[in-house]
Amino acid sequence: MQRMDKYLKLIGLTAAAVFYLAAVTDAAAQSSRNCGPRIAVVERLAEGYGETRQSMGLGANNAVVEVFASEETGSWTITITRPGGLTCLVASGQAFEEVAEALPTSDEDA
After folding, report:
1. What percentage of the chain's residues is helix, strand, coil (to nearest 5)?
2. What one-character DSSP code corresponds to residue 103?
3. What does the DSSP assignment read for 72-83?
4. What is the pTM for the complete model shown?
5. Cα–Cα distance list, 19 to 29, 59, 74, 81, 108 (Å)
6. Where do runs of H (alpha helix) occur along the chain?
7. Using CA atoms, how far apart are residues 66 and 82, in angstroms rounded to an integer?
8. How many CA atoms lie within 13 A of 12 on its CB side?
9. Between the CA of residue 65 and those of 6, 14, 57, what are the distances in Å?
10. Confidence band (pLDDT; 50, 70, 90) for 60?
11. Rounded to whole angstroms, how far apart are CA atoms 85 and 36?
């Protein structure tokens, strides 16, 4: 049951990231200061912020969307990796937490 709750939380985060990415233009996402080779970006998130991958999904145009977060500091980062291998930072913030709650049913308010 606990694994299922975690799975639902990760799906929710990934869905939110995909919706956010749909609103971001390609030009903004490919700004040179926010992008780099995937291995370099992942290493920087791990070494600099203690963030590890928490979820991932396939977004528009076959882009891989990933959510990285640190359970210790609460920092989080959403990245998108294009088919060519370029990884861009899309959003970041603080106070990351896993929420263990069921999604509302269709007859409940959100």
Report:
1. 40, 25, 35
2. P
3. TT--EEEEEE-T
4. 0.67
5. 14, 9, 22, 15, 23
6. 2-23, 26-29, 38-49
7. 12
8. 14
9. 18, 7, 5
10. confident
11. 9
Structure letter (DSSP) for residue 22: H
Task: Using the predicted structure, report yes or no on whether residue 57 has a pLDDT greater than 90.
Answer: yes
Name the 3-class secondary structure at 51. coil
d(CA 3, CA 16): 20
Report strand pairing: 52-58 vs 35-37. Answer: unpaired
Asked if 80 contacts 42 with a C-beta cutoff of 8 angstroms, the reply is no
48 contact partners, CB below 8 Å, separation of at least 6: none
Mean pLDDT of the chain: 81
Dist CA 39 CA 42 (whole Å): 5
Res 56: pLDDT: 96
Distant-in-sequence, close-in-space partners of 82: CB < 8 Å, separation ≥ 6: 61, 63, 88
